[in-house]
Structure formats: structure tokens, C-alpha cells
Design goal:
alpha/beta, seven-stranded mixed β-sheet, 6 helices, 7 strands
């Protein structure tokens, strides 16, 4: 049986862990299981041009990871272990007990590595792209400098927008990625910016803010 692919995010007290995530499942139900994990500042939609090439032969899951896209945005819990636990609970809920083919890009690669370490029996093949197992100390220090430069709490949302639109790109300095980083922080901020700061601090210490996505 081939599953009709559609984007889903359900909410309700009696729903399982998967209800927290904007996700899409496609391909034959009986086919081998393939999961794609997107990178920092990304979403499941990043795989939209990749997934169709595999849908005839694999049962595929893509989802916005916690703190991204249309999935839930908790105030804390952005370690690789938390992301790996999310995937483990999702697979359990889907009944995907067999080993999966797991593909991760950047932050998704880091989370895929952690999942493979924590739940080795559940991974048949692992592919990671644009990230390695090590976290350069200078990358962590750089990101923390940027985050500490954010003058929270802001007086209001207008003040936050002015800062991220005009002042923050000047602090970052480098053209590469500066607009994307500003948009990410502006989009996911509360008025105080607390959520985005917590998330990125955790990610920087765990080595997820590196590679092409570090500034």
C-alpha cells in the first residue's frame, strides 16, 4: 500500500509525541524506512526536491525538528540527546521497529549521529552531510559573542525588529549568512528573545552551530 503524502500537525491532549511535529510521510508502507533531518534554520521542506527521487522505493519521513518551522517551540531542550529522543519516540509511535536509513544535514547530521549512538540497533545506514563529530571552540565562542550582543529585553516588538533589521547585521559583520541569521533570530524571538538565545546557546555548546551555518 502506498501512503498518500500530506503535511500533518495535530494537536490535542490525547495525541502522541508526533502531534508536536509538522511532518510528512510518503512512499509504500511496506518499503524500507528512510528519514531525513534538516539543518539549523531549516525545515522539512528543505528536502522537497530530494524526497521524490526515493518515494518509489522507500517509506519516507520528513519533519520540522523541535524549535523549527511549524513544529513545537519549547523554551528548553535543544541538546542532541533531546532531538534523538524525539526521533525515537516518533519511530515508536509510527511502529517503525526495523532499522532505518537515516540522512542528516548539518544540525540534522549532528542529531543523526547522536541517534545512531543512542539507538544503534535502529539505524541500518547513516549519511551525514556538512558537519563532523567535533565542535571547534572558536565557533562556539563566536556564536555566544553574537548572542550576548542582543540587548534583551527589548522594549517592544518594534524595537526588536529595528535591532535585527539594522544593528545586528552590522555586529555580525560578514556578508555570508548574516541576513539568514538575523531573520532566524527575529522570526523565532519572543519580545525578550529568550527562546532563540536559549536554543542557540545549547546548540553551540553541543557542537550543532558549526559548518556552513556558523557565522
Amino acid at each position: 500500500m502506498t501512503r498518500l503524502a500530506r503535511w500533518v500537525k495535530q494537536e490535542g491532549k490525547d495525541m502522541g509525541h508526533l502531534a508536536n511535529f509538522h511532518h510528512r510521510i510518503s512512499g509504500p508502507d511496506s518499503a524500507p524506512k528512510l528519514v531525513f533531518l534538516h539543518g539549523l534554520m531549516g525545515s522539512a521542506a528543505n528536502w522537497r526536491k530530494i524526497v521524490p527521487a526515493f518515494e518509489d522505493q522507500y517509506n519516507i519521513l520528513v519533519f520540522d525538528q523541535r524549535g523549527h518551522g511549524k513544529s513545537f517551540h519549547p523554551d528548553f531542550g535543544f541538546s542532541p540527546e533531546a532531538y534523538a529522543r524525539d526521533l525515537q519516540l516518533i519511530l515508536d509511535e509510527l511502529g517503525w521497529k526495523e532499522g532505518i536509513y537515516l540522512v542528516g544535514h548539518s544540525l540534522g547530521g549532528r542529531n543523526a549521529l547522536q541517534f545512531s549512538h543512542s539507538f544503534a540497533s535502529r539505524v541500518k545506514k547513516l549519511v551525514i552531510e556538512d558537519i563532523g563529530p567535533d565542535s571547534p571552540p572558536e565557533a562556539v565562542e563566536k556564536i555566544e559573542f553574537y548572542l550576548n550582543s542582543i540587548p534583551t529585553p527589548f522594549q517592544d516588538k518594534k524595537a526588536a525588529k529595528v535591532f535585527f533589521d539594522h544593528e545586528f547585521p552590522q555586529i555580525i559583520g560578514r556578508e555570508k549568512g548574516r541576513c539568514a541569521f538575523s531573520v532566524f533570530l527575529h522570526k523565532h524571538r519572543s519580545t525578550t528573545g529568550r527562546n532563540s538565545r536559549l536554543a542557540l546557546f545549547e546548540k553551540s555548546h553541543s557542537g550543532e552551530c558549526q559548518g556552513r551555518e556558523s557565522l
